[in-house]
Specification:
- This protein is an alpha/beta fold.
- It has one domain.
- It is 35% helix and 14% strand.
- The protein has 9 helices and 13 strands.
- It has a 7-stranded parallel β-sheet, sandwiched between helices. Strands 4-5 form a two-stranded antiparallel ribbon.
- β1, α5 and β2 form a beta-alpha-beta unit.
- α6 crosses α7 and α8 crosses α9.
- The longest helix has 29 residues.
- The chain starts with a helix and ends with a helix.
Length: 355
Amino acid sequence: MRHRSGALLILFAAMLTSGCGTVHRRGVDPVLARQLEQTLTRPALQLSPELENRILALDPINVTAEEVRQVLSPAPAPRIMNLHGGIATVIARMVSFSEFLIGMGYPAVSLTNPSDGTYSFSCYESSEKLAGVIAWHYEKEGLRPMMVGHSQGGMQVVKVLYQLAKQPPARLPVWNPLTWEKENRYEIVDPLTGEKRTVAGLVLPYVTSVGAGGLTRALPNQWDMCFRLRKIPDSVEEFTGFCKGRDLLGGDFLGYGPANHYKANGKAVVRNVWLPSEYKHGSIPDTKHLLESEAMKDWINSYRPGSELVSTPQLDRQFDADSSHILWAAEVWFSIKKHWVLELQRLIQAKRAKS
């Protein structure tokens, strides 16, 4: 029996690592890197007073489709770092999710990696590197990034949170996403205060994970997460964990029961959302098809989650088009809109406090 279990694990690891979802990064030359950096540097500080006032008047939890089009889409948005799972085929799923967000009004420039135009990060990329990239973007753009992780990418976003949760004297280097080189510094200039601060201790506004856990815990690159995957540190303000039943690859105990629930280590607001069991583990981020129906887009824009920390949302109407994964898309889009507004308001208020 012991030999059979070992053979199953080897077979499982071979299955996941064949055609793995690794992304090979190549930085641009230093001259082009400096030019690109200038286009990214704090565009939110150049908003007109009229647009700033309209953004400040928004209610973050009741953002309409019209407000996205007329108020938010003309403004910069927090960078969203999508982290895909462990096999190459899931990269296209994250591209589909990015295209869904663009179709809903999110700026494409805030979804693509600036040096190579890719839409996601691999779960195999260093969590320390990703934390350093997050800090770089915050310093340059003035808006704290968000993370969306799927499958092993969902485990990786929690790893990144643990990197950021380190406190001084811990030292996390800044990573430049244009050259893909580590910078010789461990501090950034906080765009809100103008003062230096360490990468360690940075708090993100919103992070979410879907389909993390299950058999992927057995892979060597995930061993360090075995006992802390469901414990969310204070390096994020709001975290949503998604799980579903019959999920061998991304759910503990086949995805059933409270063993799949995330909990806060401290003050982070942590929600757990149960998705329909019929959703397929590997294709949940595949959501571009939802744009084909105006009725579905309207339903997604009108969606408001409940206040429960553990919820099982239901689709309360039928559509003529394919509505698969709509509950996940609606939940995540609601939170992205909310924190898009909050981050812009935070930056505008800091700018006005200085003037």
